[in-house]
């Protein structure tokens, strides 16, 4: 599976789950200890609002704080849909993956940025599913695609406080369980 295809599948899955959030579930807890369902969707929406800017070459200073705080407003689903559509179009634009983007970690290859975004969609899609109590499956091809990347990066991310320490699972566990576990979640 190509990385862009994995991103698209993870984006579609996350979107489908956002559309399944009932009005009374936005304040429900997720496996991300500090985030409710709304907080989690807000986080992803903000990230995807940034993507078109960064992929066009904007600096962090140029984007500024425009996507800080509550970006969901009164219609979280519509806010997510708009951000997701803009992000998808930006990643699919001709030449989008050819030029490094500015991130908080400095200049980052666009393919690395795409990997980060795909991983965030897949793992937070699992978190969202758990929060709203729906099927939490990650597409097996997506899980397999992202597992090696997550294993390679997880120690550095833990040092930054981005993810909890890995949860032990057998080497024979399916890729989804190993992916979730390496990022500090209990499958």
TrEMBL record:
It comes from the Bacteria. One of its GO terms (molecular function) is metal ion binding. Residues 10-129 form the Mycothiol-dependent maleylpyruvate isomerase metal-binding domain. Transmembrane segments: none annotated. Gene3D superfamilies: dinb family like domain. InterPro entries: CHP03086, DinB/YfiT-like, Maleyloyr_isom, MDMPI_metal-binding. This is TIGR03086 family protein.
């Amino acid at each position: 599976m190509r990385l862009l295809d994995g991103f698209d599948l993870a984006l579609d899955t996350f979107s489908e789950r956002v559309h399944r959030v009932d009005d009374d579930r936005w304040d429900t807890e997720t496996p991300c200890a500090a985030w409710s369902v709304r907080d989690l969707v807000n986080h992803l929406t903000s990230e995807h609002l940034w993507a078109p800017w960064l992929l066009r070459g904007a600096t962090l200073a140029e984007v500024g704080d425009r996507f800080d705080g509550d970006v969901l407003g009164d219609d979280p689903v519509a806010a997510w849909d708009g951000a997701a559509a803009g992000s998808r179009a930006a990643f699919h634009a001709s030449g989008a993956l050819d030029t490094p983007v500015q991130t908080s970690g400095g200049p980052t290859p666009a393919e690395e940025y795409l990997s980060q975004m795909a991983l965030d969609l897949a793992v937070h899609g699992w978190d969202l599913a758990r929060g709203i109590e729906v099927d939490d499956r990650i597409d097996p091809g997506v899980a397999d695609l992202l597992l090696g990347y997550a294993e390679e990066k997880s120690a550095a991310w833990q040092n930054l406080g981005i993810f909890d320490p890995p949860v032990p699972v057998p080497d024979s566990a399916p890729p989804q369980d190993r992916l979730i576990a390496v990022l500090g979640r209990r499958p």
